[in-house]
Design a protein that fits this description.
Blueprint (H helix, E strand, L loop, with lengths): L1 H5 L22 H9 L8 E5 L3 H7 L4 H22 L4 E8 H6 L2 H24 L2 E6 L7 H12 L8 E9 L1 H17 L10 H10 L10 E4 L18 E4 L9 H13 L9
The chain binds farnesyl diphosphate (FPP).
Farnesyl diphosphate (FPP) binds next to helix 3, helix 4, strand 2 and helix 6.
Length: about 280
């Protein structure tokens, strides 16, 4: 195990690796993104991403799986930079690890991912703080190794060195059903204590209770992008995605770049959202 951790990043990754799928639109992504930024009402205030496809990327590149996760971190770094330049996105929530991953991935991959998360958070917190990015971690953090949990909580408590521009909310050891169960437990405790009557439990109370938990997402996403080609939620933000626009892309997460983001935001701008009413 020690050997495995010590040799955690054996070969440097190439600066630019082949893209599996270039989006169809031909104009420069930066120009397209700048055009979108002139219509702030059409840019999602809360963007969520299921970053899927790291392992398949590694297989395609004939590299160890851990390189796929490192390449995934690079893609995330790029996304944060671009989102900051867009200004109108206020919350970016990313799915780093599901609660199911904890029991269903091989122990050596988990050890590896924990080490990667710790390193990324250690290396990036100051840089993010200087750019006004507040870090937040949502999920059942108590299931994580103590060292990692402490690192995450310290990073989230770090004061920002610049005015806040963005909340980067990282879902880790996260499960939508677990979050709903945790909320039900909190409400049930209040009922048992005589603070609440069962008939007082409504949607507003459930939402408020969920948001009051420091390990829950700040608001409902406007747009959820899933990479990797699968068409499912995988237990991500089940309650919050009631009226979220969904977009699944075929590209593997490490290939995700500004052109994909432009494609996604253009698609979002075309969607007509009626929240069950009439447009
Ligand atoms: C899915 O790939 C991706 C993950 C399990 C990890 C994603 C995490 C990062 C990109 C790092 C984020 C880090 C921080 C601290 C914010 P997969 O292995 O399920 O890919 P597959 O679908 O090809 O099997």
């Amino acid at each position: 195990m020690l050997l495995l951790l010590a040799s955690s990043r054996p070969r440097p990754l190439p600066r630019a690796w082949p893209r599996c799928c270039e989006p169809a639109a031909t104009s420069e992504p930066a120009v397209r993104l700048a055009a979108l930024a002139t219509h702030p009402q059409k840019v999602p205030e809360h963007l969520a991403v299921i970053m899927d496809g790291n392992s398949r990327w590694a297989r395609r590149e004939r590299r160890p799986r851990r390189d796929g996760h490192w390449a995934g971190v690079d893609a995330l770094r790029g996304l944060v930079d671009t989102v900051l330049s867009l200004e109108h996105v206020k919350v970016l929530t990313v799915y780093a690890m599901s609660i199911e991953n904890l029991s269903r991935r091989p122990p050596e991959e988990l050890a590896w991912l924990f080490e990667l998360f710790e390193k990324v958070v250690r290396d990036e917190t100051e840089r993010l703080s200087k750019r006004g990015v507040r870090l937040r971690f949502v999920g059942a953090l108590d299931l994580l190794p103590e060292r990692l949990r402490t690192r995450l909580l310290d990073a989230a408590a770090e004061p920002l060195a610049a005015p806040q521009q963005l909340t980067l909310c990282v879902a880790i050891s996260y499960g939508g059903r677990e979050e709903v169960a945790r909320t039900a437990r909190a409400i049930g405790t209040r009922v048992a204590a005589g603070e609440l009557l069962p008939e007082q439990i409504d949607e507003a109370l459930v939402t408020a209770t969920m948001r009051a938990s420091e390990h829950s997402v700040p608001s409902d996403p406007d747009l959820l992008i899933r990479t990797g080609g699968d068409l499912r939620l995988s237990n991500f933000l089940l309650y919050q995605c009631a009226y979220t626009e969904l977009l699944c892309l075929d590209c593997l997460w490490p290939d995700f770049c500004d052109a994909h983001l432009a494609e996604a935001l253009e698609e979002f701008a075309r969607r007509r959202r009626n929240f069950g009413g009439r447009v």
